[in-house]
Write a structure and sequence with these properties.
Elements lengths: L14 H9 L5 H5 L5 E4 L14 E17 L2 E10 L2 E8 L13 E11 L2 E10 L1 H7 L3 E4 L8 H14 L8 H6 L5 H9 L4 H29 L14 H9 L6 H14 L6 E6 L5 H13 L4 E5 L3 H15 L6 E4 L5 H13 L4 E4 L13 E7 L6 H8 L6 E6 L5 H7 L4 E5 L10 E6 L3 H13 L3 E5 L10 H15 L5 E4 L5 H12 L5 E4 L12 E6 L7 H8 L10 E6 L4 H12 L3 H12 L24 H13 L2 H8 L2 H11 L6
Parallel strand pairs: 4-6, 8-13, 8-14, 9-11, 9-12, 10-11, 12-13, 15-20, 16-18, 16-19, 17-18, 19-20
Antiparallel strand pairs: 1-7, 2-3, 2-5, 3-4, 5-6
Length: 678
């Protein structure tokens, strides 16, 4: 069986099952084998019930009693029972699993495994799995993969298909032997077998590091390919270093630019007036004021007789930029237009016409502005916001619409310079490392689980003042509970704890249009509290949101926590961030103390690199930078540096040969075509 074969060639997968796998973007054998586990379940000795604590994923052994249900509450079906051991008893609760009652028998001794939560004054285990003692004994000292699921597929079904695929597939190693030996990388066959079914943590660590290296290596090849394909492009868009309108706009602002903003603007204008086309990254911290820098850059271009374009990753962000740019640039006679997927066809055609005639000076939009029908009269500058959300070809597609326009990339992720030089090897870098003086620093608080109730009360008081807030849900433990169930359950807890407020939920399984609608309602203050997973890490600017509470803060990387915290502190009012620490270890306290004492994203990124170590191999990838499946630029920073080095050490012949490799070519195709992300 070949990696490129249809997934239906795997024993046991028919048309119906293949349709379910397609929802997980698995169409081929290769797709399936690269559907990596999102975590692993390990099985320890059962704990005495008196030693069980909130937030733990535990196993307990005892006798079943007090069976109740199924009972329907707010469209949720509940089944419950107690389990007793010599030290005490604890309630087991199942949501939307009415059939579970058939497996419950009074007096039967079982092992129950699940997450411990609080229900009033009592602890309960939610969504537990039940095992006979002899079954559980066989699972000890094993590591079972846990996959992202979709309707029609269970974890066991995916595991079975994975074993069949691993057994029947032939593998072709694409990494040169010299690189495998030099950097101690596992073979492709070893990697896939181990990452899905590891024997122990040490094996898993080696496999994940090898996958990270491979992802970074191909990314480095991609950057080298771009660099070698393009000679230095001469500048055909001369822009004067000083544009009077830029100075006028600065004076009209209700605040002074920071020194870092001024330096970034100078870098941009200097580049655009130099002999070569500009390719520059503006790397700024959350709330550092990158937007006004891009406004000034586009104003300079327009007043020099050229057009500009800004491409944002979502329609919500595109709308936000459109309103900001319009209000700032209309007084200078600059015509700004919005072009997104939701724009009506008739209006799109009119915008196409105005762009081609030069009547429109600046277009702001999503990938809609790189469609074939969009043409410019004289495109001088292209800005992409949150570059890692776009494919390389998406950036290239829009630059090809002008006569080699200048390229400006904006990133809100503070990345240590040592890593940024590798990740943005094709761009010059400017850093905005100061926060505008008119912003109040966010007040931070790291508390234990016992302070959760008082945290809810604090959120209630902020909402009572007319403000809004976010709650980032607990990360899903290694059970079959879905993101939807996790977020919904937590929202119900909040509705009981803070009655009378308007709560909405958001998670990664929603369609993009649904996320846009939810965020728009939140922006319009039709919602008081947004209960979400980390999908809001990079999102809309809501100045009225003044409080964010992050559950399981100890399980995130510091850089990601800093990005999440950046959802507040964007207005004139004092903002607050509450980190709930579910782990009392000294290491956890030390890491979170960095956030408690600093709002400086670049300092935090450096500390993250220093403290993260090998990373959490058993949880979700911790940084949201770029679209690497396993590779984390902090946890796997050494692999990133080695991969960059390895790609640059290749001879020209070795490099060209690798580009023709089927695995690498397919990886490129999946990540650099319009519509895909990198």
């Amino acid at each position: 069986m070949l990696l490129s074969d249809d997934i239906k060639s795997i024993k046991g997968i028919g048309d119906k099952t293949a349709e379910c796998f397609e929802k997980l973007k698995c169409k081929t054998v290769s797709d399936l084998l690269h559907l990596y586990p999102r975590g692993y379940e390990t099985f320890e000795m059962p704990k005495p019930i008196e030693k069980v604590y909130e937030g733990d994923l535990v196993s307990v052994y005892g006798a079943i009693s007090n069976i109740k249900g199924p009972v329907n509450m707010r469209k949720v079906s509940l089944v419950s029972c107690d389990i007793k051991d010599p030290s005490g008893k604890i309630e087991l609760v199942w949501f939307n699993q009415p059939y579970i009652k058939n497996n419950l028998h009074l007096g039967t001794y079982v092992i129950a495994r699940g997450k411990v939560t609080r229900k009033g004054r009592n602890l309960v285990i939610t969504q537990p799995k039940l095992y006979k003692p002899e079954q559980y004994d066989l699972l000890k000292r094993t590591m079972l993969p846990v996959y992202s699921l979709t309707k029609g597929l269970t974890n066991d079904r995916i595991s079975k298909a994975m074993k069949e695929a691993l057994k029947a597939t032939g593998y072709k190693e694409y990494l040169p032997t010299a690189i495998i030996n030099r950097y101690n990388i596992l073979s492709e066959k070893e990697v896939l077998k181990t990452v899905h079914f590891p024997e122990n943590k040490e094996e898993l660590a080696a496999a994940r590091n090898s996958i990270a290296f491979r992802e970074f290596f191909i990314f480095a090849l991609m950057l080298r390919s771009i660099g070698e394909d393009k000679a230095v492009v001469k500048n055909s868009h001369f822009v004067p270093r000083i544009v009077p309108e830029c100075e006028e706009l600065k004076k009209s602002l209700p605040y002074d630019l920071t020194g870092a903003q001024e330096r970034a603007v100078s870098d941009i204008l200097y580049d655009m007036s130099g002999p070569n086309r500009m390719s520059r990254l503006i790397q700024g911290d959350v709330g550092s004021g990158k937007t006004i820098v891009s406004v000034l850059a586009l104003l300079a271009v327009v007043k020099s007789g050229h057009q500009g374009a800004l491409m944002a990753p979502t329609e919500v962000l595109a709308n936000q930029h459109y309103k900001t740019f319009t209000s700032l640039l209309e007084p200078f006679g600059v015509k700004v237009e919005l072009l997104v997927g939701a724009t009506k066809l008739k209006e799109k055609k009119e915008i196409y016409s105005r762009l081609e005639s030069g009547e429109t000076d600046i277009v702001i939009g999503t990938h809609a502005i790189i469609q074939q029908k969009v043409n410019f009269k004289n495109l001088g500058l292209v800005i992409t916001d949150e570059q890692h959300r776009f494919g390389v070809k998406q950036r290239e597609a829009i630059t090809e619409k002008g006569n080699d326009p200048h390229i400006l990339v904006m990133s809100a992720t503070p990345i240590p310079r040592s890593l940024a030089l590798i990740l943005y090897g094709d761009l010059d870098i400017s850093v905005i490392d100061e926060v505008p003086k008119n912003r109040l620093p966010i007040k931070n608080c790291v508390v234990g689980k016992e302070r959760r109730k008082s945290s809810y009360e604090f959120i209630r008081k902020e909402i009572a003042k007319g403000h809004q807030g976010y709650v980032i849900c607990p990360m899903i433990e290694m059970t079959d509970v879905s993101e939807l169930e996790n977020v919904s359950e937590y929202a119900e807890i909040l509705r009981e704890a803070i009655p009378g407020i308007r709560i909405e939920t958001m998670h990664g399984k929603l369609k993009e249009a649904e996320k846009e609608e939810i965020m728009t309602r939140f922006k319009n203050h039709e919602t008081d509290l947004l209960v979400s997973t980390t999908v809001i890490e990079v999102g809309i600017d809501v100045p009225n949101a003044t409080v964010i509470m992050i559950e399981n803060a100890e399980r995130f990387g510091l850089a990601q926590l800093h990005q999440l915290r950046g959802r507040v502190g964007r207005g004139k009012d004092q903002s607050y961030c509450i980190f709930i620490n579910g782990n009392e270890s000294e290491e956890s306290k030390e890491r979170l103390e960095v956030l408690n004492t600093s709002n400086d994203g670049f300092y935090i990124a450096e500390k993250d690199l220093e403290l993260r170590g090998p990373g959490d191999f058993f949880g979700v990838k911790q940084s949201g930078d770029f679209d690497f499946k396993i590779g984390d630029i902090y946890s796997n920073s050494n692999a990133l540096k080695e991969a960059g080095e390895a790609a640059n050490l290749l001879t020209g012949e070795e490099f060209r040969k690798l580009l023709k490799n089927e695995t690498i070519a397919s990886y490129f195709a999946a990540r650099i075509n319009p519509g895909e992300t990198i």
